[in-house]
TrEMBL record:
Species the sequence originates in: Mucilaginibacter terrenus
All copies of domain Transglutaminase-like, residue ranges: 171-237
Name the record gives this protein: Transglutaminase family protein
Pfam families: Bact_transglu_N, Transglut_core
Transmembrane residue ranges: none
InterPro entries from the UniProt entry: Bac_transglu_N, Papain-like_cys_pep_sf, Transglutaminase-like
Length: 325
């Protein structure tokens, strides 16, 4: 029953004053039987009122507007989370019964959203692979584990090889990427056989196994299994997501789970700095640990390779759209 301390800082610095910064944030960890939010301190420049609501996918979402002229906006989220191990599926019901149950979900909300495929030309190549990987007598649980292992074995984890513009087809061609890419390919495989699949954003916490992506943000997939519910699958590490994974939000893909989206009025360009620190409750979390900086200022010829977190923050930077006065 580990307890984790997470600090997630998002900082926008503008080269001139802007105003009416309206933002939507998804920085509230999911609270349920397996994840207990003990404390959440959220501080925002100007102390605007944050209205919260539950979105279509069950995520807690906050919205606020900072109306005063400003050249700096900082969103500082500090969370203490207690996680509990989730029991694994018993998988003791006949496979044909489970597949029939999944088939009957294809027209039922909300599973429709999680069965719909994104456009992917590579489906013609991936479909026979999916059919060949699973055995005729596999249950949905066994099939999901097989697909997770396939992604882990056949896709190389390379930081910076993909960008925010990289499509599923490009990922399929190069057979490489990072956590977001692995999760999206796994979801395609699951949906091909009729298993509802959804995207999960969150954090993976440090442990002795040295898993990829520890101590920062992470992404994985969840598969819906009859008689059990949603099972987290981490293809980046070929493991079931359990008490070392802290869930922040779920959706059809990353865009449903973006931690910060917003607009502002003004002609200023901005720099985005983000820092994330994850550790055990007894550990000291530094006030700021710079992870990535994005700038709308002119760039130099030297561009450092982007890792998965940098890609993640580029997406947020793109969503911080500018409104001219």
């Amino acid at each position: 029953m580990p307890e984790f301390k997470i600090q997630h800082i998002t900082k926008y610095s503008y080269d001139n004053f802007v105003r009416d910064s309206a933002n939507k944030i998804i920085l509230f960890p999911i609270a349920d039987l397996y994840q207990e939010v003990l404390k959440h301190d959220l501080s925002i420049t100007g102390h605007p009122l944050v209205d919260t609501y539950i979105d279509y996918y069950g995520n807690e979402v906050g919205s606020f507007t900072y109306t005063e002229p400003h050249n700096l906006l900082v969103i500082n989220s500090q969370v203490s989370v207690n996680t509990h191990p989730r029991p694994l599926p018993l998988d003791d019901v006949a496979a044909v019964t489970q597949w029939d149950e999944l088939f009957n979900l294809r027209h039922i909300v909300p599973y429709i959203d999680f069965l719909k495929q994104e456009y992917f030309e590579g489906l013609s190549e991936l479909t026979p692979i999916v059919n060949g990987e699973r055995n005729a007598n596999d249950t949905p649980y066994r099939a999901a584990l097989t697909f997770m292992e396939y992604v882990f074995r056949n896709f190389e984890y390379i930081k910076g090889v993909t960008t925010v513009e990289t499509t599923l087809d490009e990922i399929w061609k190069i057979k490489a990427g990072v956590c977001q890419d692995f999760a999206h390919i796994l979801m395609v495989m699951l949906r091909l056989v009729g298993i509802p699949a959804r995207y999960v954003s969150g954090y993976i916490c440090p442990n002795r196994d040295g898993m990829r992506g520890t101590g920062a943000t992470h992404a994985w997939a969840e598969a819906y299994l009859p008689g059990y519910g949603w099972l987290g699958l981490d293809p980046t590490n070929n493991c079931i997501a359990n008490e070392m994974h802290v869930r922040l939000a779920v959706g059809r893909n990353f865009s449903d789970c973006s931690p910060v989206k917003g607009v502002y009025k003004g002609s200023a360009r901005h720099i985005l700095d983000v820092s994330v620190s994850v550790g055990y409750e007894e550990e000291h979390i530094p006030q700021e640990k710079d992870i990535f900086t994005v700038s709308t200022f002119p760039k130099t010829d030297h561009v450092a390779p982007r890792n998965s977190y940098e890609r993640y923050m580029e997406i947020i930077q793109q969503q911080q759209q500018q409104q001219q006065q």
